[in-house]
Amino acid sequence: MLERMGMALMRRMDPETAHGLALKALTMGLAPLPGVVTSDRLRTTVAGLNLPNPVGLAAGFDKNATALAPLSRAGFGFIEVGAATPRPQPGNPKPRLFRLTEDRAAINRFGFNNDGMEAIATRLATRPKGAVVGLNLGANKDSADRSADFARVLTCCGAHVDFATVNVSSPNTENLRDLQGKAALEALLAGVMEARAGLAVPIPVFLKIAPDLDPSEIKDIAEVALGSGLSGIIATNTTKSRAGLRSAHKGEMGGLSGEPLFEMSTRVLARLSHLTEGKLPLIGVGGVGSAEQAYAKIRAGASAVQLYTALVYGGLSLAAQIAHGLETLLARDGFETVADAVGTGRSDWL
Fold it and tell me: Of 123, 155, 174, 258, whose CB count within 10 A is highest?
């Protein structure tokens, strides 16, 4: 009841202001937190990461790693913070976050606003023990060498996280998505993998890709990923598409996330699963707002899932609800573990 009342109040506010208040409420202990949600059926391993359940928090909710302790008790199996860039940057002018309530979606054009890698590294150094925490790596908008920025952030913060994600798929930094091209991506990832090798304890590195890719681009990414030493792929980031939207803010510039992204992102996920033949773990993100949708991503080829925008409409308690619902669905269909279900429905999305 408290969560519903708080959400009703925040929906009357500017979305970015409401987001900031939600983070403050978390850090002040004002949000009900269920603790770790797990079971023998939900526990799984992805790229060497032992997860209590496969439901993760996507990057963007806690950009600056300020709410790690409460988020570690919010029912997620893993948490991704950031994106972090080498230098602090304010991001794009406000307003830059828009609710599309009728579509259960959001459009953002934040532009990698964050406190910078050094401040974020300091917070990550005191992260709660036992939680699986990753960092989304970004590049400064005015950087002379954006490819090198990703490696710099990994070198600075890598000792304090369990995994890192190379984010070349945000639509809100001009020309960033150009780094998804085969030659540019190979060069970028070579630098990142060199930085990983320099860490005292090398960690898994994922690549987060856009949903707005044609089949040949998806094929190129699969080939680069398999040849680069990447630990996995996160599919997908936000989309530039506006197909089928009803909300008043549908024409705003930026990346669209939430329910309208579900089908597009799941088809990209299934295609990657087919191309990589199960050799590379995939994390499905985009439109996950229910246990059924999380289960569909897993059966399409995801070893784990992430969500963020659905929390705007379902509240923070949604993570635990999805994890519990996922266990019920796995049991219903006779799967003893999450891993047993991965890819079993892939053909439905190809």
Answer: 258
CB atoms under 10 Å from CB of 127, counted, come to: 18
d(CA 252, CA 291): 30
Q: Is 317 a catalytic residue?
A: no
DSSP-derived 3-state class of residue 307: strand
Structure tokens that stand for 205 in this block: 């590195």
How far, in Å, are 21, 204, 229, 233, 283 from residue 341 at the CA level?
Answer: 38, 23, 25, 18, 14
Which residue carries 């948490």 as its tokens?
A: 79
> Which residue of the set 169, 170, 231, 247 is catalytic?
170
- Which of 3.20.20.70, 3.40.50.1400, 3.40.50.720, 3.40.50.1820 would CATH assign to domain 2-345? 3.20.20.70
As a whole number, mean pLDDT of residues 195-215 equals 96
- DSSP bridge partners of 44: 51
Q: Sketch the domain layout of the chain as residue ranges.
A: 2-345
Per-residue DSSP letter, 58: P
Quick one: DSSP state of residue 95?
A: P
pLDDT in tens, 214-271: 999 999 999 999 999 999 999 999 999 999 999 999 999 999 999 999 999 999 999 9
List CB contacts of 250: < 8 A, sequence separation 6 or more.
100, 103, 107, 242
